[in-house]
């Protein structure tokens, strides 16, 4: 009887912890973590050391600007999705213009077709 009760209690606790873990909101990455994760994806471009440094700086500036824009929008109480998308697109265009100077044509093609799309956040259902 004790073993059955203990087993039932264990299964119940495990089930509850699984449900709670699934409902927890995902943690947002810091600007530095996002930059590092992006730089890890750029390994396939075989960038020179100088190009890596410049790229990291461009990405860090981009993520900081993106975060600041979001914080400003939240602080103003205006959560207009279209306005935020327009701002994100503007920042991405500026970032891509800077990357065009750093990357070769082949690297830029890989960036725009493979790497950059994988950086977009995926919607959870």
- Helicity, as a percent range: over 70%
Q: Can you summarize the main beta sheet? A: none
Given helix and strand content, the structural type is mainly alpha
| Separation of the first and last Cα atoms | 42 Å
Q: What is the ordering of alpha helices and beta strands?
A: HHHHH
**Proportion of residues in β-strands:** under 5%
The low-confidence runs, each spanning 5 or more residues with pLDDT under 50, are none
Q: Report the strand count.
A: 0
**Global outline:** elongated
The whole-angstrom Rg is 21 Å
Query: How many DSSP H or I helices?
Result: 5
Properties at a glance:
single chain, 125 residues, mainly alpha, 5 helices, 78% helix, elongated
Describe this structure in words.
The structure is a single chain. By secondary structure, the protein is an all-alpha fold. The chain has one domain. The protein is 78% helix and 0% strand. It contains five helices and no strands. The chain has helices spanning 2-23, 31-41, 49-76, 81-102, 105-119. Helix 2 packs antiparallel against helix 3 (49-76) and helix 3 (49-76) runs antiparallel to helix 4. The longest helix is centred in the middle third of the chain and has 28 residues, at 49-76. The two termini are 42 Å apart.
């Amino acid at each position: 009887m004790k073993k059955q009760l203990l087993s039932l209690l264990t299964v119940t606790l495990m089930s509850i912890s699984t449900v709670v873990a699934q409902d927890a909101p995902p943690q947002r990455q810091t600007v530095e973590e996002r930059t590092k994760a992006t730089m890890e994806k750029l390994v396939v471009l075989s960038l020179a050391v100088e190009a890596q440094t410049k790229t990291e700086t461009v990405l860090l500036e981009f993520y900081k600007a993106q975060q600041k824009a979001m914080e400003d929008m939240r602080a103003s109480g205006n959560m207009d999705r279209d306005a935020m998308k327009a701002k994100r697109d503007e920042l991405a265009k500026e970032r891509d213009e800077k990357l065009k100077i750093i990357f070769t044509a082949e690297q830029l093609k890989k960036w725009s077709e493979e790497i950059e799309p994988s950086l977009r956040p995926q919607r959870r259902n």
